[in-house]
Every structure is written in C-alpha cells, then in structure tokens.
Amino acid sequence: MAGQLWRIVALYRVVTLAIAAALIIRDHDNFLHPATGFLMLAVMVVWTPVTIYCYSRGAWRLPWFIAADVGVAALLVLSTRLVESAARINSGAPTVPDFWAGAPVLACAVAGGPLAGLAGAAVISLADVVERGGLSESTFGSAALLLIVGGIGGYLVQLGLRAEEAVASAARHEAAVAERERIARGIHDSVLQVLALVSRRGQELGGEAAELGRLAAEQESALRALVSRPAITGPPGSNLDLRALLDPLNGPGVTVSCPAQPVMLRHDTAQAVAAAVTEALGNVTRHAGPQARAWVLVEDDGLAVIVTVRDDGIGFAHARLAEAASAGRLGVAQAIVGRLRDAGGEASITSAPGQGTEVELRVRRD
C-alpha cells in the first residue's frame, strides 16, 4: 500500500506542475519579471522528476529529503514576490507554484502521518502568509486546505496502513493454522501410530519392553494433546496470556501452577517461554528417570515473569552441559538458554546428581 500512496503523490505533483505551467504561460505578460517566472517553472520541472524517482525508492524516503522537498516549495512560494507586482499580490493573484506547493505536504503525510503532514502544511502556509504580507482571505483559505490535507490525509494513511497490516496478520494466522493442521495430520499418520504400536507391543512382551511401552504411551498422550491444542497466534507486538500456552502441559507426571490473573507478555516472548518450558519438560522425560515428576511454577511480580521447571529426577553434574554442547547436543544451549536470550530474557539451570534439576526462565516486561 505504501508504494501506491507514493504513486498518488507523484501523480498529484505531475498534474499540479501542468497547472502551474499553464498559469505561468498564461499570465507571464502580467509578471513584473517574466524571466524569473520561467526560471521558477524550470526549477519545478527539474525537481518534480527528482522527487518522483527518489520517493519511488524506499531508501530515499528520509526525513532530510522530505524536509528539503518542503523547503524547495516554500522558497518557490516566497519567490513569487520576485515575479509578481505588489498590486497583483494584494489583489489575490496565486503564487507561482500554486497547488504544486501542496505536493510536499502530501509527502509528509504519507511518510510520517498526521503530525508530519500538519508540520509540512504549517511551513508552506507560513511561506504563503509571508509572501502575501499578511493573513488575507485567500491566504487563510489556502492554509486551511493545506492543514486539512496534511492532517486528515496523514490520518487516513495511518488507517490504511493499519488495515493492511490487519489483513496481512489474518493471512499469516490462516497460513499458520493450515500448516499446523498439515503437520498434525502427518504426525497422526506416522509418529502417533508408531508410538501406539510400541506401547501395545511393549505391554504384550513384558519385562523391560513393558517399561518402554509405558514411556511410549506417555509420549503418545503428550503428543496428541500438543497437536490437538488450538493454535494460538497473533500479530507481532500483540500481547498473549502465558497461561494459555502452559496450562495444557498439565498431564501425567507434570503439574503446572499459574497465577489466577492473566500473565500478559508480548506474543513472541510468550511463545519463546512456552517453547523453552516444553523443551525442559522433554528433557525430564528423556533424562530424569522413569519415575521422575515435574512441576512448572509461573510467577509474575509486575516487572518480570519467572517460570520455574523443577523435577525430582536423577539430576546431573554441571559439567555435562558443557560436554553436551561440545558434542553438538545443543538442546539446552539453544532450545532453552539461546531461545530466552533471543527473547530478551535469561535462563539458568541448576542440578546435581541425585537432587533433580531446576530450570529458571526470566523475562522482563518492556
């Protein structure tokens, strides 16, 4: 949409340049200095394609260039006193650039919204007042029109961009839901069936195979709960209740305790915390021992959210984390510590042989 808006600014500039050229050609015999009028027209003819080219490329839509655009228009308005006689100015003759001077106001509105549009309109209006030598009826009307274009135009631009982002967000949400459903179907048709088969065969064989069957049954149950949980998505920058992501993790061997009040975090931060908790619980299942239980505690002190994942498993020596990372097993380093670091938080892991493991995740509120 932004590209379309800049094309509208370009079209307005071309049309108003044609109008200004027609007026200069028509009235040059009445000018006090006709040559200066044609020189000003030449400046507009050169500046128009320069601005169209620069605004068509995002790298040039910079505050200093837009300010220069406003400055050129304001100088051309003030230069009318070099072309027109005092009598024609006092009688309400239009400035030499006329409506062309409104193009930078539109550029300000598109680039910076209503405040920038109003600022650009104020500069051009002030130049008009100075050129007229006071606030006449025609000057007041021109200033009011410019302020309306700058303020309301900028507001409408912001509304349009927000609407475009809302549509894009809805499209991303639908794509995420569709992808989740596709993955869920694939998991159901492959992984879940294999786990169910392992569970059933393990129970039939007994002995150590029965324990493997039990673990497979637990993983099947947890995976079914995961793929059947509704997708929780939202636009970047939106807020999400962390409890909605962690409560479904309650299950055999896992107890989740959350505050009664919503625990609101930025959407991407909440997703990162939930993913780290899921990884920590996965480590409990894989490494803490067959009888290990886990507890997830969520605390919110207003300034930060702390999530603790604790288990009563076999624990491990602290040096094992460094050994695992050097061996290329980056589950803790990347999926927990790295994920929290990327989300602006921090994670710590405390463990000792025979004393279980505690993972603390902390994220600060913006």
Summarize the structure.
Helix content is 65%, strand content 11%. The chain has 366 residues and is of the alpha+beta class.
Q: How many H/I helical runs? A: 13
- How much of the sequence lies in strands comes to 5-15%
Q: How many domains is the backbone divided into?
A: 3
Oligomer: single chain
Low-confidence stretches: none
Largest sheet: 5 strands, mixed
The secondary-structure element order is: HHHHHHHHHEHEEHEEHHEE
Strand ordering within the main sheet: 2-4-5-7-6
> Mean pLDDT, as a whole number?
84
Could you describe the 3D structure shown?
- With 366 residues, the chain is α+β, with helices and mostly antiparallel strands.
- It folds into 3 domains: 2-167; 190-228, no CATH class; 232-366, Histidine kinase-like ATPase, C-terminal domain (Heat Shock Protein 90), CATH 3.30.565.10.
- It contains 13 helices and 7 strands.
- It has helices at residues 2-27, 34-55, 63-78, 80-83, 86-90, 103-132, 137-189, 191-205, 208-228, 242-246, 267-287, 319-326, 331-342, and strands at residues 239-241, 254-257, 264-266, 294-300, 304-311, 346-351, 357-364.
- Strands 2-4-5-7-6 form a 5-stranded mixed sheet.
- Helix 1 (2-27) runs parallel beside helix 6 and helix 3 (63-78) runs parallel beside helix 6 (103-132).
- It starts with a helix and ends with a strand.
- 31% of the residues are buried.
- The model has no long low-confidence stretch (mean pLDDT 84).
